[in-house]
Amino acid sequence: MKNIEWSKLTFGYSKTDYNIRCYYRDGKWGELEISSSENIPLHMAATSLHYGQEAFEGLKAFCGKDNKIRVFRWEENHQRMVNSAQGILMPEVPKEIFWGACKKVIELNRDYVPPYGHGASFYLRPLLIGTGAQVGVKAANEYLFMVFGVPVGPYFKEGFKPVNIQIVRDADRAAPLGTGVYKVGGNYAASLSSGERAHKEGFSAALYLDAKEKKYIDECGPANFFGIKNNTYVTPLSTSILPSITNKSLMVLAEDMGLKVERRPIPVTELSEFSECGACGTAAVISPIGKIVDSQNDGKEYVFSKDGKAGSISTQLYERLLGIQYGEMEDKFKWNTLVD
Ligand SMILES: *Cc1c(COP(=O)(O)O)cnc(C)c1O
Candidates 181, 183, 325: which one to mutate for ligand 1, based on the most atoms within 8 Å of Cβ? Predict the structure, then answer.
């Protein structure tokens, strides 16, 4: 066991012993390679540096009370990385390579996987980048796929408490028919400045609206949005949202709990009708939303929590998902893969 204070972990980078790499050259993928270096040797004209040929994933492994490690829905992450690769003209990472690398990173860094009981987990970061040199705007002919892992604590240090969100009206994260549906770095570059402003003004994230009409809710920082009203779980349908696997799972759990599930455009004005709202993604699972402020529209406020507590449906969804991930509840939908 490593000398790590598991309960003090935050969601941030720390060094582990090994990462796994696999190169694509001459039209084919090579073997998995084990590396103990934190650096990548990279050609200065690599397309990932100049033309944004870069996609990534994020998924978690959890150590249960039984000391077994469960990886949550990795096949979904693989499929999404395939979609991202197709979207920006990179070669698809085969399933065996994706899983082989994730599994090896966990096994080789076993001592960094947080033991059960600290609310911590082992976050896996698969990365696919164009490494081949180009100066003209073209796809590379060489690529690197790699996976590293880091032990992480809960995303929010304060725990499962409502956060405040700021609507952005002077910037878009992604175009309606752009790359918003792919998990690529370019979308993040586009969101950094409004995210940073939201933080400076005391909010935990920026809420984007649809780029075309500025009428509907799109994405909530690096997370999907959902609202609850009349026993219904409502989440936006949009061509610029990254399909969150957490959201996909919450929709299943909501239905299982007897809620209706709707995926449709959500007008900003409908915010006043929700009894609960949240943002969801792998890092935090759910960030319950206490208040949404439309700063650039007369500072209009939508309040969902007055007592600093999360709503009961969001809380139940959160507990159910974590219960499955830690192996405390029945894995009814076969979402976990055991690493043994
Ligand atoms: C990764 C990501 C999410 C969350 O997806 P999960 O699969 O739930 O982790 C949401 N929005 C954006 C923009 C993302 O990049």
Answer: 183
Provide the number of structural domains found in the chain. Answer: 2
Q: What is the pLDDT of residues 14-67, one digit of tens each?
A: 999 999 999 999 999 999 999 999 999 999 999 999 999 999 999 999 999 999
Which residues have a Cβ under 8 Å from the Cβ of 286 and sit 6 or more positions away? 160, 246, 250, 278, 279, 280, 310, 314, 317, 318, 321
β-pairing, 260-263 with 232-235?
parallel
Which two tokens mark 24?
A: 């694509």
Is 158 domain-assigned? no
CB of 109 sitting under 6 A from ligand 1? no
pLDDT in tens, 257-314: 999 999 999 999 999 999 999 999 999 999 999 999 999 999 999 999 989 999 999 9
Q: Domain limits at 179?
A: 163-325
> From the CB of 183, is ligand 1 less than 6 Å away?
yes
Of 68, 183, 200, 248, which residue is the catalytic one?
Answer: 183
Q: Is 285 helix (H, G, I), strand (E, B) or coil?
A: strand
Q: Is residue 279 part of a domain?
A: yes
DSSP string, 204-233: SEEEEE-TTTS-BEEEETTBEEEEEETTEE
177 lies in the same domain as 136: no
Look at ligand 1, atom 5, and give the residue with the nearest C-alpha.
244
Q: Is the CB of 103 under 6 A from ligand 1?
A: no
Indicate if 114 and 173 belong to the same structural domain. Answer: no
pLDDT at residue number 1: 66
When pLDDT is cut at 50, 70 and 90, the band that residue 330 belongs to is very high
Query: Is residue 331 situated within a structural domain?
Result: no
CATH label of the domain that carries residue 94: 3.30.470.10
- Same domain, residue pair 215 and 144: no
Residue after which a domain boundary falls, among 97, 129, 152: 152
